[in-house]
Structure formats: C-alpha cells, structure tokens
C-alpha cells in the first residue's frame, strides 16, 4: 500500500514554518510518530493530565491514551498504510487537522483532530472520523 509520510511532501517553506511554530511542530511530530508506529515517541506528546476525546469515549492520562493508540496502530502498520493530511490550521493556541487514510482493515474517508498544546504536550485532543472497517 502507498505510504504518504509528511516529510516526503514538505517543501522548504512549509518545513521552516513548522520549525518556527511550536504547535505545528508538535502536531507534525505526533502524526509522524503515529505513521512510524513509534508508540514511545508518540506518548512523549502526552502527560498524565492529557485528555483525548473520541466519539466513543473520553480517555484521561497516559495509560488510557497509550491503550487507545496500541489498538489503533494495529490498523495502521508502518509501510502498509496510506495517510494524507488535507489541512493543518493553527489559531490562538489551537491546532486543527483534516486527514484521510487507509490501513489494514480500515478506511478513514474523513478524519479530524483538534489539539490544545501546553508546554509542548498535548493537553486536550479530540478525534472524530468516518471509519469504514473492511475486515
């Protein structure tokens, strides 16, 4: 399956903008860690006070968020997943992304996350999407 890592699509202007914007840098690091299936690096973006709100449940703290991502990464194995970032917007300390992707047994036709980052940690994240399970 085609893999679309963000670093392959970035031009120099975009890369410089991300380096100069700490919120964008956290979001890009977060996405890249997920796509690389690097759970430990991904979890560095969270703290014990972090909250992740999904359609199904609200997860609080490192342990609950880690368990969520362990399950999710099974559907998006490195080298066998596709990811496209359609929009990345930041305003007044809030980050917003729209994306789509395809993994092993799941097709995400529309995904969106919102991030509030404090001291380089994701304090609050929301996720919603249209997930179609194929297996």
**How would you sum up the major sheet?**
6 strands, mixed
Supply Rg.
Answer: 14 Å
Strand order of the main beta sheet, please? 2-1-6-5-4-3
The succession of helices and strands, N to C, reads: HHHHEEHEEEE
- What is the number of E strands? 6
- Shape descriptor reads globular
- The top-level CATH class is Alpha Beta
How much of the polypeptide forms β-strand, as a percent range? 35-45%
Task: Please work out how many helical segments DSSP would assign.
Answer: 5
Helix and strand content put the structural class at alpha+beta
List the helices and strands and how they pair.
Blueprint: H1 6-9, H2 12-19, H3 22-35, H4 39-43, E1 46-53, E2 58-60, H5 61-73, E3 82-91, E4 94-102, E5 106-118, E6 121-133
Parallel strand pairs: 1-6
Antiparallel strand pairs: 1-2, 3-4, 4-5, 5-6
């Amino acid at each position: 399956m085609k893999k679309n890592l963000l670093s392959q699509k970035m031009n120099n202007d975009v890369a410089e903008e991300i380096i100069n914007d700490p919120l964008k840098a956290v979001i890009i690091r977060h996405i890249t860690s997920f796509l690389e299936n690097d759970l430990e690096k991904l979890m560095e973006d969270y703290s014990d006070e972090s909250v992740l709100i999904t359609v199904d449940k609200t997860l609080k703290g490192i342990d609950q968020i880690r368990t969520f991502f362990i399950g999710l990464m099974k559907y998006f194995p490195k080298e066998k997943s596709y990811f496209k970032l359609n929009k990345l917007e930041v305003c007044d300390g809030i980050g917003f992304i729209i994306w789509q992707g395809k993994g092993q047994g799941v097709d995400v036709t529309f995904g969106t996350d919102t991030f509030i980052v404090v001291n380089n940690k994701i304090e609050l994240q929301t996720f919603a999407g249209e997930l179609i399970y194929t297996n």
